[in-house]
Give the backbone structure.
Amino acid sequence: MSLHQDVHQKDQTEKLCGRSVRELIDRFGRRITYLRISVTDRCNLHCHYCMPAGRPTWFEREKLLSFEEIWRFVRVCSELGISKVRLTGGEPLLRSELPELVAMLRKIPGIREIAMTTNATLLARYAESLKIAGLDRLNVSLDSLRPERFARITQSDAFHQVWRGIETALSVGFAPLKLNVVVIKGINDDEVVDFARLTARYPFHVRFIEYMPIGANREDWERGKVVSCAEIRERIAREIPIKHAASDSEGKGPERTYAVCDGKGCIGFISPVSDEFCSACNRMRLTSDGKLRGCLMRNGELDIRDALRRGATDDELRELVLEAVARKPEKHTINSPDFEFSDFYTMNRLGG
């Protein structure tokens, strides 16, 4: 019996182009509907929690999946029940033709949502073409509202360039727009209230994310640098009235959402360290070199790039997806004594 036979499949009532669409349900009863795709490991910023120290070694271009290869794999995944795709990096917009990929994915039956996570340095240039191509949602990684501190965190004096990208995205219709803030004690935790206050002026969904031991250099990772989401929420609540709010992602993902009184937006909390949310995980990840993983924090990937380039049939690709879902672990091991850093897959390669 192969591993993938542990994955439950059942026909859905809806039909797409005459095909029955299956559900991917792993050994722990989680329905897998979400695929995150890193289109490049390259980035024009150098945040220490994401990138290795020193001069990075990028993948050669031929190691990255082509847009046609990504399209084919997503098409196969859509037939198995994947309905949401997120494009990540590195910085995805360093692949300058990215709107073409969005347009290709938009035509795949069953893909209901296409999102992207970006550092927004190039967003002013591409926001309109991304919207026209069919991108539904944007997440912007932004860890400081202070230009000098932003430069220290990212090793780039690009704060105003990022803010122009955010404003352009809002102007072409990406609202609400999500801001992802990785909170690190002693680095930017004194800005959490400032970020929350942005929701009074802008249709932002500000998401505070706990600092995780991935992509960071071993010597930099300290559990004491983690600011729990409970503490962040308490700090904000002392200054701004907030209340728990239901969201579309509630029950289907890791985020806990709160409404801000008199706000145009809201705030959310993602707590992988202090309050593990693995039981709600609905995702798979395709790394920038074409490996399919069931967990951000644990190894055990399958080589999709090799399968595509050796001429695998659609049925063979489906078998690999089923195998990856069957291998999906119950939880990460951040809080376990046997947790191990990945020397190879830093966050820029895995996809932020």
Remarks:
- Confidence is low (pLDDT under 50) at residues 9-20.
- The longest strand covers residues 177-183.
- Residues 34 and 84 are 5 Å apart (CA to CA).
- The first helix runs from residue 67 to 79.
